[in-house]
TrEMBL record:
Pathway: Amino-acid biosynthesis; L-arginine biosynthesis; N(2)-acetyl-L-ornithine from L-glutamate: step 4/4
Cofactor remark: Binds 1 pyridoxal phosphate per subunit.
Other noteworthy facts: May also have succinyldiaminopimelate aminotransferase activity, thus carrying out the corresponding step in lysine biosynthesis.
Gene label: argD
Species this chain originates from: Marinobacter salinexigens
SUPFAM superfamilies: PLP-dependent transferases (SSF53383)
GO cellular-component term (any): cytoplasm
Residues recorded with modification N6-(pyridoxal phosphate)lysine: 254
Record note on quaternary structure: Homodimer.
Domain of life: Bacteria
UniProt-listed InterPro entries: Ac/SucOrn_transaminase_bac, AcOrn/SuccOrn_fam, Aminotrans_3, Aminotrans_3_PPA_site, Class-III_PLP-dep_AT, PyrdxlP-dep_Trfase, PyrdxlP-dep_Trfase_major, PyrdxlP-dep_Trfase_small
Localization per Swiss-Prot or TrEMBL: Cytoplasm
Protein name in UniProt: Acetylornithine aminotransferase
Amino acid sequence: MNREPVSRELFDEVMVPNYAPGAIIPVRGEGSRIWDQEGREFVDLQGGIAVNCLGHSHPGLIGALQEQSEKIWHISNVMTNEPALRLAKTLCDLTFAERVFFANSGGEANEAAFKLARRYCWEHFGPEKNEIISFRNSFHGRTLFTVSVGGQPKYLEGFEPAPGGIHHADFNDLESVKKLVSRDKTCAIVVEPIQGEGGVMPADPEFLQGLRDLCDENDALLVFDEVQTGVGRTGHLYAYQMYGVVPDILSSAKGLGGGFPVAAMLTREKVAASLGVGTHGSTYGGNALACAVAQKVIDTVSQPDILKGVRARSERLRKGMMDIGERHDVFSEIRGEGLLLGCVLSDQWKGRAKDFLSAGLEEGVMVLVAGADVVRLAPSLIIPEADIDDALSRFEAAVKKLTA
């Protein structure tokens, strides 16, 4: 067994250089705290980028994984399995959905959603109705299809030619959508209720309702990408429930497994019928281990007291960051919902979000960025209030050093 010392330098020797990870290597986590190889402790406000919704080493998730690991891991989709069926039934009971497709990542769930939208319109209206409308600054994954639907050209650079039939409108600008939508050609409008990678930008309620109306008027499907906003992140199980606007298709991943790779595409029976036998698939999708863990996540997060707690923690964290912003003149606003918050840098600090991330690490607090101008927070949904206060104290110490 290879037990040679592992360092950050080894990354550069053995890994493809598409990431630029920080210098520390976390080796242990408990709750909302992480320890690195040297034993240094950090308060985690990153949450694995909105993934570790119940923190690290959650006893319930460990128990679910251990229990299922002693039964059956993987059997392929030639047969079904009990955890997948239970999880699908739970997701249908708790949402608008009547049918579920399981995958392994947000990109895969979105790939399935976009393929379904095209195939549904191909079956019902013909091959000309294939165009997808998305939004600038959106992010939907890293497959060629999802990165093309995403509205950030930098992620497509060098990978062209991109799939065709994709148009981009301006987020929160319904008029820009009306100029692109067409009854003959539009098959779907794809939107994040809160743009995550695009700067933690919430949609206006009237905008999402307007998209719903446009889809209804033009026989198009409304697709919500809730990879980042789903599974309690906003203080509601899914963000569409907060907005009161129901999509035709919804993608879920990140927090769904609490750190175990799993994703789901949710839709109605009428739409799902277009993915008949053999039209789409995933070798690992619906894996028994993943679904057993996700079941525990959903059973926990869907409890009213947990969702209420997200909203309370949000207020505490938001107010703390606003106070820091005011004391040191570093933030112009704090936006977002629940425990997906974006601290927008003031004019003199624009473009320097990564400096705040680095300064935070030095003081023992882990934050994220969402572009160059926004510090993003996506901690555990059950982070203790004492950990929030400790994180705020450490972050203010980092800001003091940065502004000095």
